[in-house]
Amino acid sequence: MTLHASPPRPTQPAITLHAAWVEAAQALAVARLDHGHGCASAEEEAAWLVLHAAGLPATEADRFDVHALQPLNAQQLQQVRAITAQRIATRQPLAYLLGEAWLVGLRFTVDPRVIVPRSFIAELLDQGALDSWLLVPPQHILDMCTGSGCLAILAALAWQDAQVDAADLSLDALAVAQINRADYVLQKRMQLIASDLWSAFAAHPANGYDLVLCNPPYVPAASMQTLPQEYRHEPTLALAGGADGMELVRRFLRDAPPHLAPHGVIVLEVGNERAAFEAAFPQLPAVWLDTELHSEAVCLLLADDLRAVFAPGATA
Ligand SMILES: C[S@@+](CC[C@H](N)C(=O)[O-])C[C@H]1O[C@@H](n2cnc3c(N)ncnc32)[C@H](O)[C@@H]1O
What we know:
36% of the residues lie in helices and 16% in strands. The chain is α/β, with parallel strands linked by helices. It folds into 2 domains: 15-98, Helicase, Ruva Protein, domain 3, CATH 1.10.8; 113-310, 3-Layer(aba) Sandwich (Rossmann fold), CATH 3.40.50. The strands form 3 sheets. It has a 7-stranded mixed beta sheet with strand order 7-6-5-8-9-11-10. The chain has a two-stranded antiparallel sheet with strand order 1-2. Strands 3-4 form a two-stranded antiparallel ribbon. Helix 8 links the parallel strand 6 and strand 7. Helix 1 crosses helix 2 and helix 2 (42-53) packs antiparallel against helix 4 (74-90). It starts with 14 loop residues before the first strand and ends in a 6-residue tail after the last helix. The relative contact order is 0.10. The model is unreliable at 1-5 (pLDDT under 50). The protein binds S-adenosylmethionine (SAM). S-adenosylmethionine binds at residues 114-115, 117, 119, 145-148, 150-151, 167-170, 173, 196-197, 215-217, 237-238, 248. Residues 114-115, 117, 119, 145-148, 150-151, 167-170, 173, 196-197, 215-217, 237-238, 248 line the site of S-adenosylmethionine (SAM).
């Protein structure tokens, strides 16, 4: 009798992307998670997760249909199920579980050393919405409170001739920003600076910054107490803004004028805290910039106005 080894069977697709997406979306929806970290729903998170497992960028979610019938192999399916279970059990933002975040179509490496990128300023940079406020294309840009470096990188991509400084108090955050800077090959144009707000900025740069971006920690103390669990995985340093949310903002704006070019502009994010901002700076003219999801989250401040309000002897 002759024994024949059975021929290798072709690997059967374990499941399609669509089926994996339905399964993950249902599990995430039932768990009633918070989706404030770059996704608006369980469905969006599930699409990102499934695409990630398939080796596709999250931006493909816009045309998920094209990939819907593509197979996920057993290992990829196992990854989707494991991360779904981890997301539900730990309430960690999906970005941390995948080691990446997507902002205006760009990928950034993230981990719990940095807040998950979701700044409203990103959209303004991506759409060129600041151009009309700038006298000339900015040569010297600062991203204060840079975290993962996402806004500094978007600014460097928006203005290809600019030098961009990116500052943060957290050395951990700067280590992540360094990874992202290398990913976008911006080592020559983007400098990372360890600084408590302006403290390391004695005379930097010589003529002052044309544009300063800042998405500071601005969550008021009371709100810090009631944050959904997802936010508790993020660095407190990145969120906590003191009693009224304006603790960092006060120091940042008060000390800004000497570092600004004569025509300089600050673009500051305060999220839902417009009322607290206006209470803290009743004399300071601010232009509120519309974004797709919020019309009062980001304001624009002019150097001349800051100088007038924060001149020695003036009251803010
Ligand atoms: C809301 S996060 C913004 C991060 C990033 N710009 C973004 O939009 O994703 C605020 C950042 O401010 C940093 N930070 C907190 N206190 C600071 C201080 N005194 N000086 C400089 N950076 C500070 C935190 O480490 C954190 O990375």
